[in-house]
Design brief:
The protein is α/β, with parallel strands linked by helices. It folds into three domains: 9-95, Udp-n-acetylmuramoylalanyl-d-glutamate--2,6- Diaminopimelate Ligase, Chain: A, domain 1 (3-Layer(aba) Sandwich); 104-317, Hexapeptide repeat proteins (UDP N-Acetylglucosamine Acyltransferase, domain 1), CATH 2.160.10.10; 318-347.
Length: 348
């Protein structure tokens, strides 16, 4: 169902498309998303974290997205859904469609390849030989699309992206500003005089459908085989993916993570910010890496892992950390016991 007016929806229209049960006035009109604390007339807020529940009774929002058991506490109309945060995400997409780009090759852009009529190429962009662009691709200003690059339909490249030769990008990808895909991997061999000899990086990068890559992230081309990012992967800003890494489908990686070469990460993993993963490791599906952890060995069992070298299962790390916090007092007790033992030895 389309909204009755541009970017304005009733709760009835929203629930008809996205599901959920409306409690209260279903003709309440919504034109934007807001927070419980700051939303005003025409905004719909959401509550997914219980620690913000105290804000519900004082919200100025016109409506709220809630879990079913909280609807009775809502002072305004609400939509009940088991997953309020997911519902918010889908509604936010509906209320905030991407701006439509003007189709065609900008007068200050250049291309050595055919540009489909539905594609938009902004000023300052350079497109090389043998490039294949799908329908409705949008390429922002000052991008470089190298020779023999393929970009799937519906993909968006923000300003200043670089896709080096041979890169393959699937459909509906979102690539943010400053991303570099297909730069040389860090491959060098040491000579007898301890100088470095460069190893040509002859592989490429293959990126699946519905992938999002955050600003200033880098994905290096493979040394021989390709670096592979599977469908639905989400990368935050400033993520480094080294050569021949493989990231499984629907894995999400937060900012400032570095993954060294030839590591294979499974599907549906989450890797929290500032974590480091060493090279030539294998991490199975459904693994969660906590903030600033260092993974120095392969992980063969799904679960949450935390800490520095060596990384441990989360529960084991917590047990050890409890002891770590008391090391100083434990050391005092040990010194006291040693002193008493020494006195007893003297008294014999």
């Amino acid at each position: 169902m389309e909204p009755s007016s541009v970017n304005t929806l009733t709760l009835a229209e929203i629930s008809a498309r996205l599901g959920g049960e409306v409690t209260g006035e279903s003709t309440t009109r919504i034109n934007r998303i807001g927070t419980l604390e700051n939303a005003g007339e025409g905004a719909i807020a959401f509550l997914s974290n219980p620690k913000y529940q105290k804000l519900l009774k004082q919200t100025g929002a016109s409506a709220v997205i809630l879990a079913p058991d909280l609807c009775r506490d809502s002072p305004v109309p609400c939509i009940a859904t088991p997953q309020p945060y997911l519902y918010f995400a889908r509604l936010a997409q509906w209320l905030n469609p991407p701006p439509k780009a003007e189709c065609g090759l900008h007068a200050r852009a250049s291309s050595d390849s055919a540009i489909p009529a539905s594609v938009s190429v902004a000023a300052g962009t350079r497109i090389g030989h043998g490039v294949v662009l799908g329908d409705n691709v949008v390429i922002g200003p000052n991008c470089v699309v190298g020779d023999d690059v393929h970009v799937g339909s519906g993909t968006l490249l923000h300003a200043g992206c670089i896709l080096n030769r041979g890169t393959r990008v699937g459909q509906r990808a979102i690539i943010h500003s400053g991303v570099v895909i297909g730069a040389d991997g860090f491959g060098f061999a040491r000579d007898a005089d301890r100088s470095w000899v460069k190893i040509p990086q002859t592989g490429s990068v293959r990126i699946g459908d519905d992938v999002e890559i955050g600003a200033n992230s880098c994905i290096d081309r493979g040394a021989i085989d390709d670096t592979i990012i599977e469908d639905g992967v989400k990368l935050d800003n400033l993520v480094q993916i080294a050569h021949n890494v493989r990231i499984g489908a629907h894995t999400a990686i937060a900012a400032c993570v570095g993954i060294a070469g030839s590591t294979v990460i499974g599907k549906r993993c989450t890797i929290s910010g500032a974590s480091s993963i060493l090279g030539h490791l294998e991490i199975v599906d459904d693994v969660n890496i906590s903030f600033a952890s260092v993974v120095s060995r392969s992980i063969s069992i799904a679960g949450t892992y935390t800490g520095t070298i060596p990384s441990l299962s989360h529960d084991e790390w917590k047990r050890n950390y409890v002891q770590l916090r008391h090391l100083d007092s434990m050391a005092d007790k040990i010194r006291s016991l040693e002193k008493r033992l020494a006195e007893l030895e003297k008294a014999k």
